[in-house]
Amino acid sequence: MRPNDGIAAAFEATWPAAETARHGGIAVGRGRGAGGRVSSARAVGRWSGADLDAAEAQHLNWDQPPLFRAWDDEVDLIRALKNRGYRIDTPTLVLSAPLSALTDRPLPPVTAFAIWPPLAIQREIWAAGNIGPARQAVMEQVPHPKAALLGRIRDRAAGAGFVACHGDVAMVHGIEVLPDFRRQGLACWMMRQAAFWAADQGASRIALAVSGKNEVARAVYASLGFAVAGSYAYYLR
Questions:
Q1: Do 45 and 87 lie in a common domain?
Q2: Using alpha carbons only, what angle is made at residue 160 by residues 3 and 195, rounded to the nearest 5 degrees?
Q3: Listed residues 92, 119, 151: the one ending a domain
Q4: Is residue 76 domain-resident?
Q5: Which of 42, 65, 122, 146 has a 20 to 30 Å separation from 156 between CA atoms?
Q6: Which Gene3D superfamilies match (predicted)?
Q7: How is the chain split among helix, strand and coil, in percent rounded to 5?
Q8: What gap in Å lies between CA 27 and CA 45, rounded to an integer?
Q9: Do 88 and 104 fall into the same domain?
Q10: Looking at residues 159-173, what average pLDDT do you find?
C-alpha cells in the first residue's frame, strides 16, 4: 500500500535525488552514489512500456544500474517489471505517528539536540554507519526547515540523524548510533527530539522508512507509537 498524499510527498521531498529526468509517467532519480532511494525510477503518472525503456536508458546514461521503486499496490508496474526480469529487493515499510505520541515527556538534559548545519562529530558518526559523503550531500540538497539530530549518552556524542519537514509531515532519515551505545534508549530520545523540533515547525505527524526485515528497529518505533503507513520495494535485475 502507499501512504496518504502528505506522507508520500514528504517522503520524496525530504530525500531528493541530485537530478530527476521524467520519461512519460516515469521519473528517474540520479543518485550520484547516494543509494537506491535517490537512484531509482518510480511511477509519477500513466506510464507505458516505452517509458520503462526510456527509464532504463536514462539509468545507463547516468552510469547507474537500472533500478525501480514501487509501492506494493502498484501491481501493474510490478508485473511489468517482473516480466522484464526484475526481482524484488529490500521490502521497506513507511511508518508514521502523531507528534503527540513522542512529545508526551520531556527530554533528559543534554541528551538530544536538533541543529543545522551538522557538526563534524555528527558527520563522523554517520560515516561510521555507512552514511558517507554522498548521502550527507542529499541532506544539503533538502530545503529548510531541516535539522541534524545529535544524541549524547554517558557524556559523549554517540548518535546522529536527520529530520526535515514538508507540509505538516516531518520525515526522519539517517538515524545512526555508534555500536558501543546501542540498545540503551538513545535512538528513542533522538526521535523524541525530532518530534519536538517538528512541532516547532508546525508539523503534526512524523514518519520514517525502515527495512521490513529490521525487527529490532520496528519494535523500537512501535514502542514510540509508530504504525505502518505504507510499504514499497525496489526492483532490480
A1: yes
A2: 45
A3: 92
A4: yes
A5: 146
A6: 3.40.630.30
A7: 35, 35, 35
A8: 9
A9: no
A10: 98
Question: What pTM value is reported for the model?
Answer: 0.97
Determine the residue type at 126: W
Q: How many domains does the chain have?
A: 2
First-to-final CA distance of the chain: 23
Spatial distance between the Cα atoms of 172 and 234, rounded to a whole number of angstroms: 20
Q: How far apart are CA 79 and CA 26, in angstroms?
A: 15
DSSP-assigned states of every residue in 149-202: EEEEETTEEEEEEEEEEETTEEEEEEEEE-GGGTTSSHHHHHHHHHHHHHHHTT
A 10 A CB-CB count for 180 gives: 10
Of 151, 152, 162, residue with least CA distance to 118? 162
Q: Establish if 236 belongs to a structural domain.
A: no
From residue 218, alpha-carbon distances to 103, 141, 228 in Å are: 19, 28, 10
Contact 94, 230 (CB under 8 A): yes
What is each CA distance from 36 to 50, 79, 141, in whole angstroms? 22, 20, 16
SS3 82: helix
Strand partners, 159: 151, 177
Cβ neighbours of 85 (radius 10 Å): 9
Residue range 116-142, pLDDT digits in tens? 999 999 999 999 999 999 999 999 999
Question: CB neighbours of 224 closer than 8 A, spacing ≥ 6?
Answer: 97, 101, 102, 188, 191, 192
- Amino acid identity at 163: V
- Residue 106 corresponds to which amino acid? P
**How high does pLDDT run on average in the chain?**
98
- Cα–Cα distance measured from residue 231 to residue 67, given in angstroms and rounded to the nearest whole number: 17
